[in-house]
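Revision sheet: structure tokens.
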Amino acid sequence: MKKSLKMYLLFLLACISLILAACSEDEEETKEKESVYRIVYSGEIKTLNYLKTSETNEFAVAANLVDGLIEYDKYGVPQPGLAESWESNEDASVWTFNLRKGVKWVDYEGNEVAEVTAHDFVDGLKYVLDAKNESSTAWIATVVKNGSAFYDGEITDFSQVGVKALDDYTLEYTLEGPTPYFLSMLNYVCFFPVYGEFLEEKGDAFGTSKENFLYNGAYLLTDFEPQNKRVLTKNPTYWDKDNVFIDKIEYKYNKEAANVAPELFLRGEVDEAAIPTAILDDWFNDPKKKDLIRQSTTSFYSYFYAFNFDPQFDAEYEPENWKVAVNNKNFRKSLFHALDRVSAMLTEEPYEPESLLNNTITPKNFVDVDGVDYTQLEPLAKFTNNDSFDKDLALEYKEKAMAELQGKATFPVKVLMPYNSGMPDWANRAQVIEQQMENLLGKDYIDIIVYAGPSTGFLGEIRRPGKFAFMEVNWGPDYADPSTYTDPFTTGGTYNKPELAEGYTDTNGQPIYDNMVNKAKAAIDPKERYPLFAEAEAFLIEEAFVVPYKVGGSGYIASRLNPFDAQYSQFGVSNEKFKGRKLLDKPMNNEQFKEAKAQWEKERAQALAEAK
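Predicted:
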């Protein structure tokens, strides 16, 4: 009897072991099937409040958590998002959107809170246009009728602003005037919805944590520990979950992310790494590593060097002396022509540097009129087709500036040029530019001072407060119209304050550039409108308020992401979304990338032609 009991117990134990083993294998198989994308980062986000921020690394996260009315496919063709359909009146001044029913607001655990309705878009815009909330993107939303008047306090009744919920699923925008490109503006965060009751309940705490946030997008923020990690997990209630292929996105913080990422990639600990120029040759000369890297895709972000007319840096860098010098056109022109952009570009693209240079503020292929690219319109074309670097002109302008500034400015003029310390290529570029420009113009003329700014909050701590003299900055388009590239430079913009430049006030008391831009904005037909914007942009460059440099997205990366299944748009947040993206078994090498890019460009041209 005892023997039988013992045999039975042994048999039972064996069965339990087999069951546990089977469960373990099932769990392991499920884990293996889960698609996880891992990345390391150094620039921490300070807020999830997409209605307030304009910083790319912040709204790039929010774009995966909250959907807007529309999105774009991988060729750049507008697609339904939370709006299933839309229409405009004849002059494109009134737009009506029919919303998708059954979309839910959920918390970070996926628990349903409310249904997404047209009222949420009204509540979102009301927050953005309320000046006390200090939204960085409110100026975009003033395209809506009475948007500026409400923001400025001229009217206090928001019902007079041109956004209405006609019912729970019908949303109407009435604009200040005809705006045929309004659809493209909806791809930006200031037009995203928010659940008003939740926003009111959380107040200033909205967007400060995963708990103080509601989700209707492809992902939930299931982990958020600043300067440690954040995790985005596929939203199981998402309306279009079948087109979300990456189950989890894991961000790991490391203040040296740019330096350690390549090694982490080789060890299989991350799925993407930018490869700094300093180690590019090593990777390309290694038979295994060379098949892991490719060029990154370019974007429509425009990079340029800006002269600051409102210096707010410390006295040791002589801001008053800089102000005297920068207000001399010949001084600006000397630096404009002295910057060897190819030498600068070699710090991030050592093999094909010229291919990424941009001679204008607006990049090529952004918009066209009757088949003529905007950058080829006169008088902008003369800059588009010529390199700004010219040694002889630089020295000629230097002599003129020194003569005109004699007794007014002290030489050498200190030129404070900060860079983001989290970007090694930028650090190298700053050193290259310092040596190159000082060697050409002479250290008796300029003393370029490179300064390592913070890796987190660089925009808010350095650029916006004006703590620079001459610095690399960038701007990305927010909608499909040349006016989007004028926004940093008109009065109230966030860049180098050209409206404060001496001698550039028009007869009506307004800055000349502002008047040129306003004249262009008043024109509706692109045949009239685009040439006027081209004149304004040419003026900005001719007067050397900026030095155009390059387009964004340059350099080399190792990545398991397929770059050609991503949502594509020249503007807004679509490029930041992981929806639709897939992980490759092996990274693309450069040859595969170029071949796939050529095929994508061919398919895109066909898709755009069919869409038109």
